[in-house]
Structures are given as C-alpha cells and as structure tokens.
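Appendix B. Raw example, untouched.
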Amino acid sequence: MRARGKQSFIAREGWPVLLVLIVVALLLFKLLGALWSLPLWLAVIILGFLYRDPERRVPPLPLAVISPVDGTVVFVKQGRDPYMDRQAVRIRIQIHHLGIFGLRSPVEGKLLQQWLFKSGEGSDAPHLEHVGSNDDARHYVMWIQTDEQDDVILILEIANSWQKPQCYVHVGERIGQGQRCGRTRFGGYVEIFMPANVRLDVGHGDRVSAGVSVLATMMH
C-alpha cells in the first residue's frame, strides 16, 4: 500500500530512479564527455515515457462508470459476480502494454474491501469464469460502493509477480471518480462487475482511456 498524494506528470514511483539516472548522467557528462553519458540520457527518456502519468479530464457525469485503464474492451456481458454473489454486467479490458500504467477508480465512493488471490488458491478465493488467462494469474480486487449504494468490483489481473501494482488507497477511505488509485505495468487485464441494470456505453473491441471513457451509466 502507498499513501495518496498529488502526482506530477511523472508517476511517483518513477522519480527516484529518474533522479539517480539524471545525476549520474550529469557526472559522466562533466567527467568523461557527452558520448559516455548518452546511454543514460536515453534511459532517462525511456523511463520518463514508461512512467508518464498525465492528468485526465474526468467527464462531469456522476453516475458514469469510467474506464480504470487505457486498453481495449475484450467483452461486455451479463454474468455472475463471484465477489458479491449477484448477477451483474461484466466488462473485461486488456491493458495496453505501453499505455498509461496508472489505475483509476471507475466510480466515486468508499473503498470497502480489498483482496489478493492467485488463481484457484484457497477455499475462499472466488472462481472467475475461465477466459484463457494464465492459471497462475494474480487478482487484485477492490470493492467500491457509491453514495447511491451501487457496488462496483474492480479486478486487476496480472500474469507475473514482478508486475505487482502499487495501491494508493486504503480500505475505509473515500475515492473520487477517475481518481488515481494505483499503478500497474506492462499489460494485464481489468474486469469490472457492476449492477445488472446499467446502461452500457461500450462494446467489444472499443478502445478506452483511463479516467476519460465512459463504460456504463448507473440507472436510478
């Protein structure tokens, strides 16, 4: 878990590494010349690109469910939500490998619970419908409840332990619609379970942007 805080254009996780590289590059430039420092400047540019995390303008739609990641919609369908034991609309998004790595909250509300499961691990682990993902995948799950008492389950599925994301929000805290709530890296999948009566705004194959694209709208 990581504490919340305002972020700059570069995500907080990237600054320590970038600052070290910049200092070393400057020393090499001063002591040995530009040619020796060039590889490090290239590394600074590459890492700056990978750790970019620009502000996004969240649409002024309080009942909207916003995309948590940059990616492509794999499917939209009705299904059982294994975390809330209900029928729900289920949207699966493949995260772009070189897209913005920031994870954003799809709705405004309170973070009621978090879970971490490895596929098939433990008797209490909900079993998601198999969609061809790695049997060793890990699922990082957030249960967010809106002020209108709508429950939204956000699942981040990653295939490798080194992709372990950072989380900026603690259980019991409020979270804003489109707010940065965590960070992952180099792909994976996100799934969102939401009430079955939502109005859908996306379909299979649509490209979506974190904090900007509307996936669905709550009906009240």
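End of appendix B.
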